[in-house]
Structure formats: C-alpha cells, structure tokens
Amino acid sequence: MSEQYREARSIIESSDDIKVYSHIDCDGICSGAILSTILDRQNKDHEIEFVNLDVLDDLELTHELTIFSDLGSGQRIDTKAKEGQKILILDHHPPLRDLDYRNDKNYTYLEINPIHHGIDGSYYVCGGGLCYFLAKEFGYDDLSWIGVLSAIGDMQNTRTGHFEGLNEIIQQDAIDGGYLKLTKNDINIYGRNTRPLFMALSYFSDVKLPITNNTNETMAVLEELGIDEKHNRKTLNQLTMEEKGRLYQYLFGMISKVVPGRYVQYISRLIIGDSYTFLKEDPSSFLRDASEFSTAMNACGRNHEEKIAMEVLKGDRFVELDRLEGVSRDHRRNLAQAIERVTADAESSIVELENLQYFDGTGIKPEIVGTVTGMILGHCNWKKPIIGFTQTDNEGIKVSLRCSRLLSYDGIHFGNIIRKVSSDVGGSGGGHSMACGAYIPIDKKEEFLSRFNNELNGKLTN
Ligand SMILES: [Mn+2]
C-alpha cells in the first residue's frame, strides 16, 4: 500500500484539473474534507461532490483526474474513461476489480483498497482513514483527528469497543500530535458533553430498563447515587471517576436483573467503551466528543448539507459552524416529530411477529428512517429487532433495521441477513450487524417480513 500511496501522491502532483466524488455519510464527508485540504495545500483547483452510490455507474468523466473516496470500488466508475485520463480510488468496500485490472488500460487507474492487501475494511480502516494515509504521504499528519472521526462514524470499533489495525495507527498519530485524548474504559453513554446525564441515560434502549424513556426515574437514580442534585444537573463529562464507578455498578445491577443468563457476559460492553475527546475543540462544544461530532456530520449528510460539514472539518468554526448547528437542530426536530407519530399509539403502530417487530413509517423521509427506527427501539421489545418501512420517490420501499447491541454481541449479523432476504424478494441491502437497511419492491413488503421472520427461527433468545 505504501507504494500505491507514493504513486497517488505523484498522480495528484502532476494533475491540475481535479474532481472528487465522495459518499454522503460521516466517513465520506471526512474523506472529502481530508482530500480537499490536501488539494488546497497543494494549490490544486478542485471540485468536490457528495453523492449516493447509484449515480456512479457509467459516469461521464470530465476532468484530468477524478478521485473517488469511500466509494468507487463497488461501482463501474470507469466505463467511460477516455485515453490519458486519471482515476484514483480510495475505498474500503468490497472491490469489483482486482489489482491487475489496471494493466492494459490507456488511462491511469489506481485503486487503493485494504481488501486487496488482506486488510479487513470493516474494522481496520475506512474511507477517511485511507485518505488520511494519503495526507500523511504529503506530510500532513495534522489531519489525523479527521481520520479518527471517520472511523467513529463508520462504526469501525463496534466489534471490540476499540480501534485495531490501521485505525490504531491513525489514533496514535492523533494522540501524538496532541489532537486526541483517548479514555480507556469510560462510561459510554451518548451525549457526554452536551446532554444532561439524566437525559442521556433515559435514552438507554439496548435493554428495556426502569430508566428507559423515563427522566423522572433517571433523576431519582442519580440523586440516590449522590451524583446529581436537583438544581445542579451534570453532564457525564463532569463526573469524577469515582462517581462513574458508582453509576457503572448501579447500571450493571439493573441490567443483570432483566437479561437472560447468556447475555450477562456482554453487560459491561453495553456500559463501557473507549471515549474520544478532540483536544483542540472548545471544551463546551459538541465537537469536543467524537460521537457527538459524528452525529452532526451524519445530520448534514441526511439533509444534503455535506458542504457545511466539510467546511467545519476544514477549520471554519464561525459561519459554517453556525449553519451546522442549524442543520442539527432541524434534524433533531424532524426526528422527534417522526418518533412522536409512531409512538403516540405504539400499541397499534408497532406490530410484533414471532421473531421481529415492525412499523409502517410512510411519510418519514427515507434518509432518516434508519435513525428513527433506532430511537423506536426504546419503545418496543428489545429482544427482537425492529424494522421500519417507508416509501421512496421511485415507488420502492426503504427498509431499516436496528436492534439491541446484545443481539449482535451474541453473534447475529443482521446486515448479512437483510442482504439475503432483500435479494430473495428482488431488492438489495446490507450493512452492519446491528444497523442495516435495504430497498425492496413496493409489493414485496409482506413477503419480506415473512421470509425475514422465518430466517430468524431459533436464532433469538426469548
Ligand atoms: Mn465508509
């Protein structure tokens, strides 16, 4: 790969008319920001566009050099390549083409994909990480923190709770450069910097607990533990290690009372994980915590405001940061309205089958139905996955699935299951073990549900 990176650098240095295509999620936005920074510093004019995968097949290439990041390996991006053009791909998804593919071409084709080198692209490096190694080739180690953020956004650390492989190198660069503080085995509850802890705790939904969606209960618990007071509500970040220890003990006890025996071994992984603090960010900002930062990146992606997110990554902490906050606020409001609609009458809108549960989310934008589905999990049976449906513009159905982390720790990979079941009904899908999705034909919803339900026979603990 280092040889490929040297070549990538010289391809960029020898090009003046450059176009970048990157993906619309956190990883893709981070990739775009790193590439754009490299090109700026090299005084290279460039255009950047954030796209969905479906526009890439048989794309018209109109620039001297076209760079694809966090996508490209799985698409037929070069069918219209003209003689003398240059293509650079930095992608971690399964490649269609092998390393020899470039050999007999009359255009330059360089594909950097870890899978070609026997490196897993789900846990060891993602798109932003691959772009960071290119930055490093140019000597721009200061972009390491964006590589870390991309890996958080891509959920590269979900298998073990920490980074491995190439991700660990990026993480170390960020620590050495003074950009990142890694806290091992921290309490891992979302919103550590900006949400009062009693709010953050109430979103706990991997297991239905007395505190789930119940802020009266979370306040009572925190007061009882001597952590929080009525007129002095804290964020998780404001807790001492000793207070965090007390909270851990309490949560562990509460969860172990309600989970089946075989899940007890996974409880601490629900509560504890490494946390990532960006040291150059304002201590009170949501940009300080990597999870919160990545949520804001995704909010932009889902609302087609990737450029705002990219400018913040590139350093704008004034105008674009204001805009980013606006996008995040609107996004949260849209989510809350969608969730309100589904849960207002949860009894009738969430239908439970033997091995799964689902709701009809018609009217919810396809871009946010996955996030909504994840938040519905706290309102239904955590022992089964929850599936949300919504209609797309082109007469299809978007399917999203979320489940308790316990199911995935227990070895179920819903991304693989949804890939199979959706293709069985003439659609396509895939994703992570606990968060995945698919597109299926509009008349196949019932068949999809019954096949999915059957596929799970004997796999869940009830
Ligand atoms: Mn990615």
Question: Would you kindly provide a written description of the structure presented here, covering whatever features stand out?
Answer:
The chain is an alpha/beta fold and 462 residues long. The protein folds into three domains: 174 residues, inorganic pyrophosphatase (n-terminal core) (Alpha-Beta Complex), CATH 3.90.1640.30; 155 residues, no CATH class; 111 residues, Diaminopimelate Epimerase, Chain A, domain 1 (Roll), CATH 3.10.310.40. Strand 12 and strand 13 form a beta hairpin. Helix 2 packs antiparallel against helix 4 and helix 3 packs antiparallel against helix 4. Manganese (II) ion (MN) binds next to loops.
The helix content, as a percent range, equals 25-40%
> Looking at the structure, what is the overall shape?
globular
- The percent range for strand residues is 15-25%
Give the number of helices: 17
* Average of pLDDT: 95
The main pleated sheet reads as:
6 strands, mixed
Question: How many structural domains are formed by the residues?
Answer: 3
CATH topology of the largest domain: inorganic pyrophosphatase (n-terminal core)
Q: For the largest beta sheet, what order do the strands appear in spatially?
A: 8-9-10-11-13-12
Q: Name the CATH architecture of the largest domain.
A: Alpha-Beta Complex
Level-1 CATH class name of the largest domain = Alpha Beta
| Small molecules held by this entry | manganese (II) ion
Through-space gap between termini: 47 Å
Extended strand count: 13
**Poorly predicted spans:** none
Q: Spell the H/E element sequence.
A: HEHEEEEHHHEHHHHEHHHHEEHEEHHEEH
Question: Would you tell me the structural class of the helices and strands?
Answer: alpha/beta
If you compute it from the alpha carbons, what radius of gyration comes out, rounded to the nearest whole angstrom? Answer: 23 Å
